[in-house]
Task: inverse folding
């Protein structure tokens, strides 16, 4: 019989004996207890880590598809003189790799006046049609309000936070105090602009308490800009390469401008997500390593418990390699069962995480995420099959390494010494 045909036969024999040892009742119940502990330890570890990874994937997905849909991926801001002929600038920069489109903006800072109350506000003067090509802000605005932002209308769309703070209703007059620059850069007497509230912007987080939209031409008078714009916002095809694309834009703009991208204002959220993901992978290794110690303990005790059986098998012609495979198989069965159980539980919890958290919030009268602080008010989750494969592969790999030491000890048993006792 050739070596190639012997390998499946010997491996099948070792597997059968390993499974027999695992299923057989041991005189030492503690071995069975440690074996079950190892299996459930792996299952719990995979379940918890898969839930955490799915939650981080959900946060990243929300950051990408929600927050960055209303925040410009990149922006150039005029330093001294306004950017003239912005449309030509956008057309030229759209030829650069990664740049999808651009839209003009005149950003003005001010204070909302309502009785004796004041609150800071960021007025973005935009062209609604162009803005929609760069950001999805209109999706979070009350229906029909976006179309009411016309030139000379003095209409305004406020964030939900500002509306609730001052008790505004649609159609109300909104007074905004705008600081003005005087001679030598000093501030002169501010001007007060009056707008009609035509819509509300509900996104979540701090944007609702600061953001407002007006038409680009209405913002010209407030910013004292006769022609041109104060900034251009861009949409990129790869948001995670925004810094490089913005630098490329800076090298191709003739005007004196500041460069900015979303990572400067919102990058801390993405960095936090990546930090938690990195910590999760470290915890993954530690949790699996602890579970693997249980596998080592189980197999070491199993070898001691089965010394006489191993000695008999060796005298019957079983090779040391086959003996090693018996205990490798025994340990890997435990690890595989733990992976299957943990994978099933982790997948079920990850897919239904939002509903589970919502149920707990209602039952315990708590709120995990506040929409007034964060840009979402529900715990997101995005299960990825690749995460499950990584967890299972890492677990099986570490578990396999953990079986090598006790398996090697089993192969070193001397039949003469054991059977002669």
Result:
């Amino acid at each position: 019989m050739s070596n190639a045909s012997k390998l499946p036969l010997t491996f099948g024999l070792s597997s059968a004996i390993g499974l027999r040892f695992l299923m057989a009742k041991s005189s030492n119940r503690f071995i069975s207890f440690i074996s079950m502990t190892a299996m459930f330890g792996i299952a719990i570890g995979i379940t918890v880590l898969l839930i955490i990874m799915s939650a981080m994937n959900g946060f990243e997905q929300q950051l990408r598809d929600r927050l960055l849909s209303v925040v410009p991926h990149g922006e150039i801001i005029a330093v001294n003189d306004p950017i003239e002929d912005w449309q030509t600038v956008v057309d030229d920069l759209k030829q650069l790799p990664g740049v999808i489109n651009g839209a003009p903006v005149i950003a003005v800072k001010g204070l909302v006046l309502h009785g004796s109350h004041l609150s800071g506000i960021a007025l973005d003067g935009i062209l609604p049609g162009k803005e929609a090509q760069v950001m999805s802000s209109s999706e979070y605005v009350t229906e029909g309000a976006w179309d009411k932002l016309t030139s000379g209308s003095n209409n305004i769309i406020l964030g939900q936070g500002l509306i609730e703070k001052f008790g505004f209703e649609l159609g109300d007059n909104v007074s905004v105090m705008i600081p003005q620059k005087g001679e030598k850069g000093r501030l002169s007497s501010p001007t007060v602009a009056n707008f009609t509230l035509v819509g509300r912007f509900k996104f979540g987080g701090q944007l609702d308490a600061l953001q407002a939209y007006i038409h680009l031409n209405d913002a010209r008078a407030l910013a004292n800009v006769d022609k041109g714009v104060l900034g251009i916002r861009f949409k990129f095809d790869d948001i995670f390469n925004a810094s490089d694309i913005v630098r490329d834009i800076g090298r191709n703009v003739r005007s004196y401008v500041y460069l900015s991208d979303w990572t400067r204002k919102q990058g801390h959220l993405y960095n936090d997500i990546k930090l938690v993901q990195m910590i999760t992978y470290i915890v993954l290794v530690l949790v699996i390593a602890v579970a693997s110690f249980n596998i080592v303990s189980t197999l070491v005790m199993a070898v001691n418990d089965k010394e006489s059986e191993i000695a008999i098998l060796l005298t019957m012609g079983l090779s040391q390699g086959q003996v090693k495979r018996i205990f490798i198989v025994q340990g890997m069965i435990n690890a595989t069962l733990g992976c299957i159980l943990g994978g099933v539980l982790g997948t079920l919890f990850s897919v239904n995480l939002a509903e589970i958290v919502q149920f707990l919030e209602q039952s315990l009268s708590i709120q995990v995420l506040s929409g007034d602080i964060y840009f979402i008010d529900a715990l997101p989750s995005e299960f990825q099959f690749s995460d499950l494969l990584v967890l299972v592969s890492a677990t099986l790999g570490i578990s396999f390494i953990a079986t090598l030491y006790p398996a090697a000890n089993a192969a070193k048993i001397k039949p003469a010494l054991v059977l002669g006792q």
Notes: DSSP finds 13 helices and nine strands in the chain. The beta strands are 74-78, 99-114, 117-126, 155-159, 173-181, 187-201, 211-215, 231-236, 257-261. The chain has two domains: 3-66+270-419, 81-255.
